[in-house]
Design brief:
Layout: H1 9-21, E1 27-29, H2 34-46, E2 51-54, E3 65-67, H3 71-86
Parallel strand pairs: 1-2, 2-3
Helix pairs in contact: 1-2
Length: about 90
């Protein structure tokens, strides 16, 4: 089963609750807003249902797995690349 909350956190929470009630084998979710989805992600995990979180993490370690980019590492790599292109001329202090 798949649901599209169309950027609506309340609908995403409602969809998650429906998945929990239907005792799905697992839930894969890309939270619109981590804080809003954390309680229902914890609720799903407490039932023993695997919860896989994509792109934006939730504020708990109760999920089964998080798949997403490391924005800090990406930012550092982009900054390093820019410095290489500019020959460090872009630095000002």
């Amino acid at each position: 089963m798949m649901a599209n909350a169309n950027d609506d956190v309340a609908q995403q929470v409602a969809d998650m609750r429906t998945f929990i009630e239907q005792d799905m084998d697992a839930i894969l979710i890309s939270p619109k807003e981590p804080a809003g989805l954390t309680p229902v992600a914890v609720q799903a995990a407490e039932t023993g249902m695997p919860v896989f979180v994509l792109d934006r993490n939730v504020e708990t370690d109760r999920m089964t797995h998080f798949m997403g980019g490391d924005n800090l590492a990406i930012g550092r790599a982009a900054g390093s690349y820019a410095m290489d292109l500019l020959g460090a001329r872009g630095m000002s202090r």
